[in-house]
Amino acid sequence: MNSMNVTPIIKNTVNVFKNEENQDSSINAELPQFICGGNTKAVSNKTASDNKDYLGETSNFDKGMRVFDFSASFDSATKKMTCRKSLENLQHSNGQMQMPLLEEYRFVPYIEHSAAAFSESLQQYASDCFDYTLKNLEEWIMKDEHDHVPNKEILIDVLASQRSRASKDLANLHSGPNCGLAKAIQELFRLPLYNRMSGKIYELLNEYEDVFYSDKLLSSLHSVEILKPCIDIVAENTATENVFAVEIGGTHDAMRRHVMSIATKALSKSMIYSVVETSSIAENPPCALTGRQAVNASESSLIEQSVDLLILNHILHKQEDIEKALVKFSKLVKHGGFLLVKEVTGTFPLCLVLEALSERETYPRTRDTRIFGRYLHGSSWSKLFSQCGFDVIYERCDGVFATLYLLRKRLNKNTSSNSVIFHMKDLHFSWLEALVAKVGMIEKTHQETRLWLVAKKETSGLVGFLQCLRLETIGDRVKGIFISNLKTSSHIPHISTNSLDFQNIAQKDLVQNVYRDGTWGCFRHIPICTDSHNGQINTQALFDAGKSYVIVTETDRQDKLEQCLKLIQWMLDRKAQKILLCSKEKAKDKPKLVQRWQGTGVQVEVSTYDVTTVDGAWGLVNQAHRLGPLGGVFNLISISHFGLFRNQTRESFQEVSDPKVHSTVNLDHVTRALCRESLDWFVVFSSATCGRGKAGHTNYGFCNSVVERICEKRQADKLPGSRYHCPEMKMILTIEVVIMKKKKKKKKKKKKKKKKKKKKKKEEKKKMKKKKKKKKKKKKKKKKKKKKKKKKKKRQL
């Protein structure tokens, strides 16, 4: 076989847009009404500024972070709500509202060599498939007198290099829906030996394409938890609005289904995805690839440096010269573009047998140091990628069969020489005015200049701040380096323009560079499994009736008060009996807050301690202890002061940040000291702005990101600590109005349909009666005629 040469045929080209799939409505079955709207009938007061964007987020109560978000705009003229990201549009023609995504926002390492996530059952499955294959292959070769078995010499070498082991019954051991490889192998060795056998084997494997898609060995690295961060990294570090992805050689075991599923549900950008089939890969240049026809009629071919993401799934190891193949593929990818490579790095004999049997052309034999003349170990792949001008950005290995690599094509320019480093040293914003000036200066400089924001304090709000700032003027030119160690003994990298750590970071030129306890990574949204087994959890008894629970909020704001009251009711419905509502402002309707639950056996009290001070936090916890052991703290404090970053001041940041951050810090300190044993809940309601970003929300994103880091630290210390994304009350009320209007319309439509059906039934009954009457009349007439005929005959006789 010749060296790699691209002669592809377009198989499929698809435009993937943001989140257009319906989600199961059971997701929010246990969400409190203040989050998902419930039966609230209140209507928000709209003014002339009705055409305004909102960002709402919500979550389900559970450990860790839960994101349930949407971005929406309300038009008072048309009375329509348009939602983006998780909800495309509430006014669908089919009348069904799409459910937002349920996600976890957490730290994800860039490179992870540990295979602990993969169970021993995967190793056993691979071993059983291999033993079965060797045993049956040996029988085949013994019977094959006329050389019908493809690549027979190679298969004999495999048998000679392996010890014979007892074959196991795959039909009984591995018959589940995710054991497609075992089923295909059993079917394969049932084939009789005859001429041109390779074609029949190839057809058989194509028939099993859908089964291979879910096989636990072949798709071990295709899970959402592994693949989604990889796709998100590409989207975040691609400057264009659309991500242009091309998969080479996408036949059976293609990645397109997995990538498309992620892109349609949760990708922040639109994706244009093309699958290209290769024949032999040798002399034709990459620009012969015809892949854009279905996307843009003005371009007849895929030119060099046009692809954002090139996917190579088990392609490279089949080439005689891998370096030449990588160089040719590199020409297709933009500078700073990505390659997603999946290669076999273990269980080589099993893969060799399957490939040798299924390949129609002559099996390539190389003379280099590759295993079986074809395969490489993981470390060898990493060295090869580096030699060919790629940096390994993301790596995952299942420890049994394969490794997934996300590579980035190195930029021609030296980014470290065009870098400006700015340190965000504290949480008091002493650096803010200097940073505003620095951002203004960067806007006027050359586009290649990078602004690197550095934060070494583990509770810094850099992540949320960065996501919001990138959506304003300087965009992709601002990057972040965040030292977020959870262990006090962890190393702290030295960041300066001349340090090796910074030069490595600058070379990869990634937006997020988070260092945590020895590994670099980033924060990503990972979808949460919502399978039916989750319904077995008893959500009706989340709280202890003998313990007290504190809710901190602002009762002077009507929306926050109503939100708080719904949370209280939600907790009471789940066995909570003692609630202490805290607000430093004196509520005007304090009697009403307590009055609604009088006579129900429930204790609801109101406190005015100021928890933004240490003394206030101590006083609040002691007051709660008088009701009962403190079981939970819920912090709903949220203050907004939006504006573009260039117009922000230290005071505007402190106004938004101090109440939420100081209250969380103080409550964390006091609960660690007084109620480590009794505390089950420490919940802070955050915002998706710190994870997804929003222009004009840099101060809000910063403070929400700070409290999230505090909760992460608590979890690392084995203490309760959760953060949830919860929407503004106005957003909920607005959406509730839209939903109620839709429900009314649905009811009217249903009534009309029922009336029409009734009318049709009545009409049909009438018609049936008429037909029956006509039939009866006809029968009577026939009888009369017969009688008359008989009488005539009698008379004649």
UniProtKB/TrEMBL annotation:
Annotated keywords: Fatty acid biosynthesis, Fatty acid metabolism, Lipid biosynthesis, Lipid metabolism, Multifunctional enzyme, NADP, Oxidoreductase, Phosphopantetheine
UniProt-recorded Gene Ontology molecular function terms: fatty acid synthase activity; oxidoreductase activity
Region described as Disordered: 740-797
InterPro entries: FAS_pseudo-KR (IPR049391), KR_dom (IPR057326), NAD(P)-bd_dom_sf (IPR036291), PKS_KR (IPR013968), PKS_NRPS_Biosynth_Enz (IPR050091), SAM-dependent_MTases_sf (IPR029063)
Domain (Ketoreductase) ranges: 564-729
Cited Pfam families: FAS_pseudo-KR, KR
One of the GO BP terms on file: fatty acid biosynthetic process
CDD domains named among the record's database cross-references: KR_1_FAS_SDR_x
Keyword Oxidoreductase belongs to the record: yes
Record-given protein name: Fatty acid synthase-like
